[in-house]
Every structure is written in structure tokens, then in C-alpha cells.
Write a structure and sequence with these properties.
With 274 residues, the protein is mainly α. 72% of the residues lie in helices and 3% in strands. The protein folds into two domains: 187 residues, no CATH class; 63 residues, no CATH class. It has a two-stranded antiparallel ribbon.
Length: 274
């Protein structure tokens, strides 16, 4: 690939345009052959058009980014930012081959997907949805608004920060994210926060108690009040939630779990147990 002697410098507007194309269309053509590959090429198109004015160079650049690609679309956006930085250096004569750029993308899309899925799909999204549901159950309009706008704004903020950090630091950005320990700390802290919130929601919205009561001698004994609540309030909802979670870890089908809960609930209610 030939390069012009005149240096080409991308502007912040160029990088932002590429970001918004990815943010809006990262899964617009999601498919089993290339996953996010076509979306990656599309968001790179305005960058490549500016960097490579010659048609042959532009075509080569687009073909380079049409290969298979799949990662977390938000935190993984750091790959896109670093790729833009590599393309800019390549267009200005740096000894960077197209194969090196693709090797960089391929080598890091897996690790960033793992980190991003753990943080975003495993913590941030469930946290926002859980809080939104709890507010919505009380009739508070803030519940759905929190999910629609609060969650969206948070994901966009994460994606843009990752994108710009990748562009500013280049390939070293991802190495820093994966090796300095901060990412692990963030995931751990978010996980603790999410667990605390879920615990509070369980105590409020999982209704599970027993009506079993009997007399010991002449002393009435309520199993719920005198035993379970004495050990720990809401211990039965917690036990039920943990049991269902355990079933999901054993890959028990969701419909079987729901059916089992319904059958046990109906039978227990009919017998006066629950």
C-alpha cells in the first residue's frame, strides 16, 4: 500500500463520527459468518476515506475490517479506538501491516468480551433492571425511565470513554486496562454492590413464608415467627432464591423451574403450608 508524503491527521470530529456509527449500528447486521465484522467496517469507513484518498488503498482498508469480529460493544470499544490510531499511523508511513492490525483485533476481542460481559451483562445491566423493577412495582415512573435512559446513558459513557482512551493511548491502552488491576477492582466492587441490591430486593419482593403452627404442651408455636424469623428475618425467601439460583447453575431448564415453583406453591397453599 502506497502512502502520500503529506501527513494525514484525524480530528476529534472524525473519531466521534466513527464512534456514533458503531454505537448505533454495532448489531445492525449481526450474523453468524462475521458477527460484528460488517459494522466494524462501516464505522471505520469515514476514517479510512480520510486516511486513504486512493481508491485501491481504501478498498484494501475496508476489506481488512470486513473479517470476523465479535466483542463486547461497550468496553470492547477500546479496540476500535486503538485500531483507528494504528490506521492513522499506517497511513502516515509507520511500518504497520494490515495483518498486524487484524492480529491485534483478533487477539484482543476475546479478552475484552470476557471482561465486558462480566462487568456489563453480569453486573451493570442486572443492577439497573432490578432497581427499575423495584421502583416500577410501586408505580413510580422513575423505574422504567431509569432502565431506558439511565442504563443507556451509562453504557454510552462506558463505550465512548473506552473508544477515546483506545485512540489516545493506542495499543498500550488495552494492555494497561488488562494488566494494572483496576479493571478487576471495578468488577469486584460492582459485583459487591449488585449483590447488596439484589439482597434488598429479595427481602422486599420475594414473598415466601409458612403458615405451619402447632402447640407444644399449652404453648402455641408458630414455625415462621418463632423459628425462621428468630434465626433471620426473610430467611425463607433467601433460601428459595439461592435454591433457584443453584438450579440454574445445574442448567435446569427455566420452564421446569417455573413449573416446579407453581406446583409446589399451589399444593402448599391448598394444604395450608404456605
Amino acid at each position: 500500500m502506497e502512502h502520500s508524503e503529506q501527513s494525514v491527521k484525524l480530528t476529534k470530529k472524525d473519531v466521534n463520527k466513527s464512534f456514533w456509527l458503531w454505537q448505533l449500528f454495532s448489531h445492525a447486521n449481526y450474523n453468524y459468518e462475521r458477527m460484528q465484522g460488517t459494522a466494524f467496517a462501516m464505522c471505520m469507513a469515514p476514517i479510512l476515506k480520510k486516511l486513504y484518498p486512493k481508491k485501491d488503498d481504501l478498498v484494501e482498508g475496508l476489506e481488512r475490517h470486513l473479517v470476523f469480529f465479535n466483542t463486547d460493544p461497550n468496553l470492547g470499544a477500546v479496540i476500535h479506538g486503538a485500531t483507528i490510531a494504528m490506521e492513522e499511523k499506517k497511513a502516515n508511513g509507520a511500518d504497520i501491516s494490515g495483518e498486524a492490525i487484524n492480529a491485534f483485533k483478533t487477539g484482543l476481542m476475546g479478552p475484552m468480551a470476557g471482561v465486558g460481559d462480566s462487568l456489563i451483562q453480569g453486573v451493570i445491566i442486572p443492577l439497573f433492571v432490578a432497581i427499575g423493577i423495584s421502583l416500577g412495582l410501586t408505580g413510580n415512573l422513575l423505574g422504567p425511565l431509569l432502565v431506558w435512559f439511565g442504563l443507556t446513558a451509562t453504557l454510552v459513557l462506558i463505550a465512548r470513554s473506552s473508544w477515546m482512551k483506545g485512540y489516545q493511548l493506542g495499543t498500550s491502552a488495552i494492555t494497561a486496562m488488562l494488566q494494572d488491576g483496576r479493571m478487576k477492582t471495578w468488577i469486584g466492587a460492582a459485583g459487591i454492590l449488585g449483590t447488596m441490591v439484589m439482597g434488598g430486593l429479595i427481602s422486599q419482593y420475594v414473598g415466601f413464608s409458612t403458615k405451619i403452627a402447632f402447640t407444644i404442651g399449652q404453648v402455641p408455636f408458630d414455625l415462621q415467627a418463632n423459628l425462621f424469623d428468630a434465626i433471620m428475618p426473610n430467611i425463607l425467601p433467601l433460601a428459595l432464591t439461592l435454591f433457584i439460583y443453584w438450579l440454574t447453575t445445574k442448567r435446569v431448564k427455566t420452564w421446569l423451574i417455573l413449573l416446579g415453583v407453581a406446583v409446589v406453591g399451589i399444593a402448599g397453599g391448598a394444604l395450608g403450608i404456605f
